[in-house]
Task: inverse folding
């Protein structure tokens, strides 16, 4: 068993480890929802309608990066550095994200008019896009991350997952039409937003003290503009495949492909939970001791890559059995896709872990460069691979582009080569028995 607690031992193991347990509990609930309710939903809708729902979610995700403005980790870092500016930072973040949402929503409407989608597909996109507006309150999430108190965020998310699961089950039982499931996604974020506010007030804090400051806005945007480019690029190379499959093939193909994507994505929750909780510790450690910071980062990579490899091996062995069993014979083709697509999480895990390095070393520009490179490669490969090889071509394109963006690009630049060596050592440590029981 990994001594995972070592990752969180900068100033007391318990604080960081407990925080991660709460986050993992929430992600675990989402995994359970995805496996049981998600599978039931896919079977109920069938590949065609499930493809429309998945396409709409992916389409909105592409635009969501604009509304987020690359502020997520920047706000966490600023709050860790100077909590006295909490109300100004959170108030400014709220206003900026609301403005970003309004601009994004207008962009969605404009682009939809250029595409030849069905009225139902466009309706689904417009409804799901409303979720981004409620995500504007996520500044509270960033505050709790900076204080390593993500249990409050986890509780809000757990409640939302529970309610959403009940709602989706009720809709399935009542044979509800497709667009009702889009409204259910909006309801989830309404509940989460309310939960965030209640948690904030419970900690004797007031959102009425938040203030928008032009100077703070300029400072945040100056630090985040590179990350905006990176976030947009990340959204493109993570979701563009499903959008392109719809344009080149059809909605049913999106449904088949989405099963492989969703069965893979549930494991990304794990790396998000771990990296979010470790990030404040890395910030604090980097300010005091770079050698210790690199050691902690190496431990993080070691744990992440081992989790990813074990999951990939299990999926590769059993995909042909459990996909038809769980989703039905209509989705049998997804088994073969999943066996290739799942290996992309190795590089997604490394990529997510890298944010701790890029942000602490002030290398946001390089982080965005690698994401842009990944997006360009992914789009280019998808254009040709989907036409040549069909759905499996999209899986090939994803795996190749993720490997380049999440790992190999780091070797190209002098300032990121240190990170490349850490990641490479994590690959090599897979074959060292002692690193499985006692990370470096």
Result:
């Amino acid at each position: 068993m990994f001594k995972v607690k070592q990752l969180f031992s900068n100033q007391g193991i318990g604080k960081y480890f407990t925080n991660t347990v709460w986050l993992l509990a929430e992600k675990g609930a989402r995994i359970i929802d995805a496996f049981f309710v998600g599978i039931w939903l896919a079977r109920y809708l069938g590949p065609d309608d499930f493809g429309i729902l998945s396409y709409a979610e992916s389409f909105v995700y592409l635009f969501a990066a604009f509304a987020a403005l690359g502020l997520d980790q920047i706000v966490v870092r600023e709050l860790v550095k100077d909590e006295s500016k909490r109300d100004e930072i959170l108030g400014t973040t709220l206003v900026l994200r609301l403005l970003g949402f309004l601009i994004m929503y207008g962009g969605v409407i404009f682009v939809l008019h250029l595409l030849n989608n069905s009225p139902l597909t466009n309706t689904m996109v417009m409804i799901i896009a409303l979720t981004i507006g409620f995500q504007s309150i996520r500044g509270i999430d960033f505050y709790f991350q900076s204080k390593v108190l993500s249990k409050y965020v986890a509780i809000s998310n757990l409640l939302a997952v529970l309610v959403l699961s009940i709602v989706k089950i009720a809709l399935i039982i009542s044979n509800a039409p497709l667009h009702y499931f889009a409204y259910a996604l909006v309801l989830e974020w309404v509940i989460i937003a309310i939960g965030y506010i209640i948690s904030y007030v419970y900690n004797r804090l007031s959102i009425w003290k938040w203030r928008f400051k032009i100077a703070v806005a300029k400072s945040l945007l100056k630090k985040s503009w590179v990350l905006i480019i990176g976030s947009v690029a990340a959204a493109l190379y993570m979701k563009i495949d499903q959008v392109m499959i719809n344009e080149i093939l059809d909605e049913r193909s999106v449904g088949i492909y989405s099963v492989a994507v969703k069965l893979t994505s549930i494991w990304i929750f794990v790396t998000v939970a771990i990296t979010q909780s470790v990030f404040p510790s890395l910030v604090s450690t980097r300010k005091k001791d770079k050698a210790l910071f690199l050691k902690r980062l190496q431990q993080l990579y070691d744990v992440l890559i081992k989790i990813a490899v074990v999951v990939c091996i299990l999926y590769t062995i059993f995909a042909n059995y459990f996909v038809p069993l769980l989703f039905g014979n209509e989705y049998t083709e997804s088994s073969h896709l999943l066996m290739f697509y799942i290996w992309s999480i190795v590089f997604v895990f490394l990529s997510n872990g890298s944010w701790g390095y890029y942000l602490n070393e002030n290398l946001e520009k390089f982080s965005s460069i690698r994401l842009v490179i990944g997006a360009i490669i992914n789009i280019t490969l998808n254009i040709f691979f989907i036409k040549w090889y069909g759905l499996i071509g999209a899986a090939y394109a994803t795996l190749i582009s993720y490997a380049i963006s999440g790992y190999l690009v780091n070797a190209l630049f002098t300032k990121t080569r240190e990170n490349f060596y850490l990641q490479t050592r994590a690959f090599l440590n897979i074959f060292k028995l002692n690193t499985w029981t006692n990370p470096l």
